[in-house]
Amino acid sequence: MVRRTVVGVSLLAVLGMAAIQAARPTAEVGPPRVHLVTRGQPIGLGQAGGEVAQIVAIGDSVLAARRCGCPGALVDYSHLIGALEHRPALLVNAADGAVKSWDVLAQVNTWPTLRADLSAADIVVIMVGANNFTAPYKRAVHGEAGTDAFAPAAERLRRDVVAIINAVRALRGAPTHFQVLGYWNVFRDGAVAAQRYTPQERTLATDATEAANAALAAAAREAGADWVPLVAAFSSGGDPTAVLESDGNHPNAAGHELIGRELFHAYVGRDAASAAGSPMPARAPAPQAGRTARTPAG
User: Which residue blocks in the chain are alpha helix, DSSP H?
Assistant: First the structure.
């Protein structure tokens, strides 16, 4: 199940809200569907047609924004897209849980309502892959060489993301803009990581994150999607603690704002965003060589 949000063009807050829970087939497991209504008028996906910019997100718990108590990156992003295109943006958020890349591929291929949503999507945001590395990381901690552990997981991730994009394209009768998000860390980070894990574990976490991001970037290039990295944005201050939840694993409200802005920059190009006067910060500097390795959730 998914959450749907209609975001008004000129509003930075939702003026009216109605929550409607709709049943899905039992095979479809996910967050409840919610319609947020602006200007007192609900807009359903089937009713929207070309009057709204339709954004669909698929992937894991980062985009779900369940922990932060905030609207989340995708709502911020939808506001920006709506303002850019001078029309409301309808957000369908199907991201949730500790899914792996093959889980999302199966969802795209088998969930009827998600397939219908994707077939109407102008923009599809994909963020998946961190959970692919949980088992390989554990093997590496127990002695398997990191390269041996992470390379197969990275290759599977690359193939799955390409397959996800191709599957969505097969559903869509018009061009779709795809965006593939990277990770600042596929495991825990910041102060939580520093307290909980050894230097060896942090090094392995860095290796896993680099392998995941390389695979996601390769998939984006191969499939003709935007590649949206997050390492620089989250590490611009040298320590991502301020943009993470207390678990060290998920973004807080500030972190979600960063993700929304990076998605928007990738969509329009950073120079164009600046010229248009959008409230976008300059791109965060690349992390310095020799930066302290990050730490896994385990």
Answer: 45-48, 61-64, 73-85, 101-110, 112-119, 134-141, 146-171, 190-196, 199-223, 231-234, 253-268, 270-275
Q: pLDDT, tens digit, for every residue of 215-254? A: 999 999 999 999 999 999 998 777 899 999 999 899 999 9
Q: Are strands 3-7 and 89-93 parallel, antiparallel or unpaired?
A: antiparallel
Q: If residue 58 lies in a helix (H) or strand (E), which one and from where to where?
A: strand 53-59
Contact 197, 246 (CB under 8 A): no
Cβ–Cβ < 8 Å for 126, 178: yes
The one-letter amino acid at 122: D
List CB contacts of 251: < 8 A, sequence separation 6 or more. 62, 68, 73, 243, 244, 245, 258, 259
Cα distances from 226 to residues 22, 161, 187, 222, in angstroms, run 32, 13, 23, 10
Task: Answer whether 88's CB lies under 8 Å from 42's CB.
Answer: no
Q: String of b and e for 206-238 (b: at least 16 CB within 10 Å)?
A: bbbbebbbebbbbbbeebebbbbbbbebbbbee
Cβ-Cβ contacts under 8 Å for 6 (sequence gap 6 or more)? 35, 36, 37, 38, 42, 43, 52, 88, 89, 90, 91
Contact 210, 216 (CB under 8 A): no
Q: What are the structural domain ranges in the chain?
A: 3-275
Q: What is the pTM of this model?
A: 0.79
Residue closest to 262 by CA, chosen among 235, 293, 290, 297: 235
Tell me: the pLDDT tens digits for 112-148?
989 999 999 999 999 999 999 999 999 999 988 877 8
Topology of the domain comprising 3-275: Rossmann fold (3.40.50)
